[in-house]
Design a protein that fits this description.
Blueprint lengths: L1 H24 L3 H7 L6 E6 L5 E5 L8 H5 L5 E8 L4 E10 L5 E7 L1 H53 L8
Antiparallel strand pairs: 1-2, 1-5, 3-4, 4-5
Helix pairs in contact: 1-4
Length: 171
């Protein structure tokens, strides 16, 4: 549940960022994309109303196939593996049609997010059983301490019943 919650929260944060970036680039996508600083983590593309790649920041090839972009009627998110200058990485992409009929595509590299999820899963897989053992040991010790007076009464009662049958336990 912890890992699923972490993954859902991370995806929601990424989507929020993508929608914000989409909104900020949608007024003048061609000029805004050209003015973006180079980045390996984020990318943007603008496709003309005819579907040709007009401007890009990030990967040189079109991020989504034309069969997908032609069918866009509302902004949609996609997860794909894309090729950057250095490597092949997982990415989350938001694409939507603008008022001029062109298509704006924004995306973000998910490599760091996936690595963080793997680290968290590893810590839970290793730390969870260790924590369970430690907590069980502490529970055993605390329960034993709490039951010490009862054990003393039991021992005393056992001694009374065999040595002095008429003797009573103090209440």
């Amino acid at each position: 549940a912890l890992l699923m919650g972490f993954r859902a929260a991370s995806a929601a944060t990424v989507d929020e960022g993508l929608h914000s970036r989409f909104a900020s680039l949608s007024a003048d996508p061609m000029e805004t994309i050209r003015s973006l600083p180079p980045s390996d983590e984020e990318f943007a593309q603008y496709l003309s109303p005819e579907g040709s790649l007009v401007t890009t920041e990030g990967p040189a090839e079109q991020l989504l196939p034309s069969s997908v972009t032609e069918a866009l009627d509302a902004p949609r998110t996609f997860e794909r593996w894309i090729s950057t200058a250095e490597e092949f990485v997982p990415a989350r992409i938001l694409a939507g049609r603008l008022g001029d009929g062109g298509i704006l595509i924004v995306g973000v590299d998910l490599e760091d997010q996936r690595e963080a999820f793997i680290r968290l899963a590893t810590m839970v897989a290793i730390g969870g059983p260790i924590l369970l053992i430690v907590m069980a040991g502490l529970g055993w010790i605390l329960a034993g301490s709490a039951l010490d007076p009862v054990e003393h009464l039991r021992e005393e009662a056992a001694a009374f019943s065999t040595i002095e049958p008429s003797r009573r336990l103090p209440v």
